[in-house]
Amino acid sequence: MAAAERQDEAERSSIKEAARARLRRHDVGGRFSGLPLPKASVLLPLMVRGGELCLLLTVRSMQLRSSPGEVCFPGGKSEAEDKDEIDTALREAKEEVGLQPEEVEVICRLVPGIDKRNHLVTPVVGFIEDTFQATPNPDEVSDVFVVPLEYFIKPLNYMTLPYKTSSGHSGRMHCFTYDDHEHKMSFKIWGLTAHFAVFLALVIFGRRPTFEVDYDLDNLISSAVQNFMNLYASIYERKKSNL
Ligand SMILES: CCCCCCCCCCCCCC(=O)SCCNC(=O)CCNC(=O)[C@H](O)C(C)(C)COP(=O)(O)OP(=O)(O)OC[C@H]1O[C@@H](n2cnc3c(N)ncnc32)[C@H](O)[C@@H]1OP(=O)(O)O
Ligand SMILES: [Mg+2]
């Protein structure tokens, strides 16, 4: 290995090691697995490219019934054979973008979210190689792209919108526009996908973003759990009153 290559490799390892340590401190493991909601998982695939952490995202096929054309992470609904949320994320990533489970170094599960169909969605964070070549399944995925993770705390094109769920929970919705100059494409990342990307960037960088967020940044994990529990409680109360 040439000296320059060795230096790149050393830099890559130290970026990954620092991120691993922070991620492990925010691992929720199976803490939310027993909640009585239908389950889904997404994989947040991290790689080091050009000396910085980047996230791989997908654009949903226009043929899908749910959320066609929206940006999301590889992922989907849990199936009976899945052992846990990690299994679901890895199975879905393989089906959607051709990522083999052995190509992923799984690090942790983060605080879940709830989608508009009331699925409990668990984000699973894993490292992949930056040489990974996606093979999108055209039935489900129309595009795959990569965004520097730092964009989710320091965006160039950002908007916030208030949101309120049908169960009455309210908060901020982040909307990013990312211009991929290399591929001359522009992507809109918002809703649940943006929510997970921002949380991941806050965990890893531990810095204040250039926009407002619904967290206490000195108590990131407990405020994230609190926000989630408030949302969950609003859905649960509504379910009970519909019985
Ligand atoms: C405080 C806590 C915070 C909470 C949030 C705050 C943020 C604010 C949020 C507010 C706004 C919240 C709202 C927003 O954020 S909307 C904003 C932008 N959108 C998003 O953020 C996307 C969010 N959604 C997702 O990530 C996914 O939908 C999740 C992961 C939830 C489910 O995964 P997914 O949907 O990917 O499931 P799947 O992969 O199992 O299946 C997909 C479909 O594909 C069909 N299919 C499968 N195979 C094939 C095949 N071979 N040929 C043809 N079809 C095939 C299959 O039958 C299924 O169809 P259907 O059954 O769906 O019709
Ligand atoms: Mg999916």
From TrEMBL:
PROSITE patterns: NUDIX (PS51462), NUDIX_COA (PS01293). One of its GO terms (cellular component) is peroxisomal matrix. Its EC number is 3.6.1.77. Pfam families: NUDIX (PF00293). Keywords: Hydrolase, Magnesium, Manganese, Membrane, Metal-binding, Peroxisome, RNA-binding, Transmembrane, Transmembrane helix. Residues 37-173 form the Nudix hydrolase domain. Fatty acyl-coenzyme A (CoA) diphosphatase that hydrolyzes fatty acyl-CoA to yield acyl-4'-phosphopantetheine and adenosine 3',5'-bisphosphate. Cleaves CoA, CoA esters and oxidized CoA with similar efficiencies. Preferentially hydrolyzes medium-chain acyl-CoAs and bile acid-CoAs. Has no activity toward NDP-sugars, CDP-alcohols, (deoxy)nucleoside 5'-triphosphates, nucleoside 5'-di or monophosphates, diadenosine polyphosphates, NAD, NADH, NADP, NADPH or thymidine-5'-monophospho-p-nitrophenyl ester. Belongs to the Nudix hydrolase family. PCD1 subfamily. This is Peroxisomal coenzyme A diphosphatase NUDT7. The lineage of its organism: Eukaryota, Metazoa, Chordata, Craniata, Vertebrata.
